[in-house]
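Format notes (please read before filing issues)

Several people have asked whether sequences and structure tokens are stored in separate files. They are not. Every record keeps both together, in the order shown below: the sequence lines, then the token lines. Line labels are part of the format and must not be stripped during preprocessing.
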Amino acid sequence: MDFERFADDAVVHCVTEHQARQVRAALAERLESVGLRLHPDKTKIVCCDSWRRRGGYAATSFTFLGFTFRPRAARDPDGKIFTSFLPGVSKDALKKMSAEVRSWRIHLRTGLTLKQLARRLNSVVSGWMQYYGAFYRTDLYPLLRRINHYLMRWIRKKYRIRTFKKFHRRWKRVTKAWPLFFAHWKWVHSIW
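Then the structure lines:
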């Protein structure tokens, strides 16, 4: 039987619901024998076989290590779209990253140069992209767009640009001159 474990969290793969119930009972018994117990809210049986499932399951997703595993659209080698059980960044992880981006107050850092700003952001943002972008990267796009909007606001404030036309020209000049200056611009063709 396959399983993944990190600290006190684990995911156990079972073939049938009956097998999953047996494993849960055995784990509960074993933990009880050493004075521990399974977390009642976090311990659940999840049906992951999305293309065969025909209903009736209480849980069809779970979160593990910052990823939410749930049925998502996928594409087979022939280009046909089907539903598969795949991981993507969890809502809680996105909330934490969004709060951190907000705390940077990028649009108010007009005393910094573009290079200094990139140096501050890139290590963190590229880490998020590497970790959470490994699976279903499109779930990260709204966060990366938000970072870009803060950068746009920064340019408008830094150079006191009032009209959209002037701003748009400046933005195009910056993104064309340094297309990989910010880590999230590597995915730019997919996002905007």
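For reference, the curators noted about this record: The longest strand covers residues 67-75. The first helix runs from residue 17 to 33.
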